[in-house]
């Protein structure tokens, strides 16, 4: 009297055990793939690279801060200038090697058009490095002891291009009062 496989199945026809053969096959294939690829990853081609003695260029380009106040007055490093003089100075800056970094500080109350005109003048002159200086948003805790007010000279501003903060020069164009 033999035992048939059908006696251990449920009545709906499904088997109650996991078939291990496909799992073992996949694992063996993966093992073979890793065994073949590991020597390729660890071996390198022996190349005798040339030696060079180059020093880092530690010369940083100049920085020019252009401030635009609420009345659309433009300041070149805290010195008020008109549109013609701005274009002339931007062209001179574009001819320098390396070009100075141009940082734009637009007053919160300044019209967008006045900031855009300064940006367009820089583009026409051929200035390649342009960034914005902004104040940190509302995330920064306000009123900590020993810190300057936002917008006060000497506070750290964060550039919109992701650069590190730069110091606002003392005597810069007046910043708008906080709302």
Would you give an account of this structure?
- It is a single chain.
- With 179 residues, the chain is an alpha/beta fold.
- It has a domain at 63-137 and 154-167: Nucleotidyltransferase, domain 5.
- Helices cover 27% and strands 16% of the residues.
- It has a seven-stranded mixed sheet with strand order 3-2-1-4-5-6-7.
- α3 links the parallel β4 (101-106) and β5.
- α2 (83-95) runs parallel beside α3 (112-125).
- Mean pLDDT is 74; it is low at 140-179.
Concise synopsis of the structure shown:
With 179 residues, the protein is of the alpha/beta class.
The main β sheet shows up as:
7 strands, mixed
Q: Which percent bin holds the helix content?
A: 25-40%
- Average pLDDT works out at 74
Global Rg: 33 Å
Query: Which consecutive residue ranges, at least 5 long each, have pLDDT under 50?
Result: 140-179
Instruction: Report strand %.
Output: 15-25%
Shape: elongated
- SSE run: HEEEHEHEEE
| Number of helical regions | 3
In whole angstroms, the N-to-C terminal distance is 95 Å
CATH architecture of the domain at 63-137 and 154-167: 2-Layer Sandwich
Oligomer: single chain
* Total E-strand runs: 7
The name CATH uses for the topology of the domain at 63-137 and 154-167 is: Nucleotidyltransferase, domain 5
- By secondary-structure content and strand pairing, the structural class works out as alpha/beta
Walk across the major sheet and give the strand order. 3-2-1-4-5-6-7
Write the layout of secondary structure elements.
Layout: H1 21-42, E1 63-68, E2 74-76, E3 79-81, H2 83-95, E4 101-106, H3 112-125, E5 130-134, E6 156-159, E7 166-167
Parallel strand pairs: 1-4, 4-5
Antiparallel strand pairs: 1-2, 2-3, 5-6, 6-7
Helix pairs in contact: 2-3
